[in-house]
Design goal:
Number of helices: 4
Order of helices and strands: HEEEHHH
CATH class: Alpha Beta
Distance between the termini: 31 Å
Shape: globular
Largest sheet: 3 strands, antiparallel
Radius of gyration: 13 Å
Oligomer: single chain
Structural class: alpha+beta
CATH topology: Sufe protein. Chain: A
Strand content: 15-25%
Number of strands: 3
Low-confidence stretches: none
Helix content: 40-55%
């Protein structure tokens, strides 16, 4: 079950939508078993993320982690995205074992969006 702190992030819904432009990359990830899907639009320049927007279908954890990424990854160097997101998840109470796929999907979508 999504922690209370992650539920608040999800309820805020920060970052829902898409970005467009020359410095925007798009990334997609899907879980092959449960069917959860995450689409991220990431504006980045000079090796730093400027803005993240998301769309997701599936469990609350997948949507909450996408929303959390939109909140915490602004002005973060692309080399630090995974660490910053992982630390933010931990500071929001973490994920249950059956929810860990949510973090993995968002990380895969991030890498695709930034071209790495």
């Amino acid at each position: 079950m999504v922690t209370a702190a992650l539920k608040v992030v999800l309820e805020r819904g920060f970052g829902v939508g898409e970005l467009t432009g020359e410095d925007v990359g798009s990334g997609f990830a899907e879980h092959p078993i449960c069917g959860d899907r995450v689409q991220l639009s990431v504006q980045h320049a000079g090796g730093v993320v400027r803005e993240v927007r998301w769309r997701a279908d599936g469990c609350p954890a997948s949507m909450a982690i996408a929303a959390l990424a939109a909140e915490v990854l602004v002005d973060v160097p692309v080399t630090d995205l995974e660490d910053v997101l992982h630390q933010a998840i931990g500071s929001h109470g973490g994920l249950a074992r059956h929810e860990h796929h949510a973090e993995g999907m968002v990380v895969r979508a991030l890498h695709e969006a930034i071209g790495g």
